Every structure is written in structure tokens, then in C-alpha cells.
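Re: the 84-residue chain
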Amino acid sequence: MELKQYWQIIWKRAWIPALLLIVVAAASLLTGQTPPPTYSTSMRFTVGVKPQEVSDQYTYDNYYTWLSSEYLADDMSMIIDNQK
């Protein structure tokens, strides 16, 4: 068979794919649904650290106050001595 004969056969039956295309397009238009509406939201919040409450144990009988000041005085004298 020549190519011309093939082309005549295809052209003679071209209405079948065209009809199929039209039927499918019409069916999809009739049964197609629109997408549901979309919603959006936003939220803002702040994150922070709750400040610690100072306990009374540090100032109880002034022992811890004296102890910390002793260490600070000892360290300060060593820092000053090392900088010379």
C-alpha cells in the first residue's frame, strides 16, 4: 500500500476521534465541579521566658551574701594581682 492510500483511510475515519473528543469534552463540562473555596488564617504570638522569682534563701541570715562577697573579694584581688 502506498502512503496516499493510508492517508485516505485515516481521513475517511477522522470523524471517530473528533466525535470522541467532543463527547468527552461535553461530559467533563457537564459533570465537572468547581473547587471548594479556600480559606486562610494567621496567628501571631510572643514567646518569652518568665522571670525567676528571687528566693529569700539568699538573704537568710546574710550567710550567702557574706559567702558570695568573700569569693568576689578573693577573685578580685587575684585579678588585680595578675594584671600587674
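Residues 58 and 70 are 14 Å apart (CA to CA).
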